[in-house]
Design a protein that fits this description.
Blueprint: H1 4-11, E1 24-30, E2 35-44, E3 47-56, H2 59-72, H3 77-81, H4 85-91, H5 102-123
Antiparallel strand pairs: 1-2, 2-3
Amino acid sequence: MYSDKVMEHFMCPQNAYIMPDADAAGSAGDPACGDALTVFIKVRDNIIQEISYLVFGCCASIATSSMTSVLAKGKSLEEALNITEEDIIKALDGLPENKVHCSNLGVTALRKAINNYYKNQAAK
């Protein structure tokens, strides 16, 4: 049902921790299935230097959250804003059709974190 890459990120999720000193955070959830994700970012010179997350959800939600963090780390904010659900699914070697919606969580929470970072910077 799941690719080896999905199982790897489910069994050994990368960057899964709370970041109390984050520059910004963004959250997303899917009320239909109960999944929830919060992404934390630290930004230096417009680059995501550190990224972490807390996720509550199924195997696919955990794997897509992990892969989102891997894809965004080290990218400029603009590059990270351009990460799509398709990028995450492709990096995981696919998802079952009924789990494709899980990739929306990562993209949505990441974009909210970046937008919150921009708002925080504008308020300074």
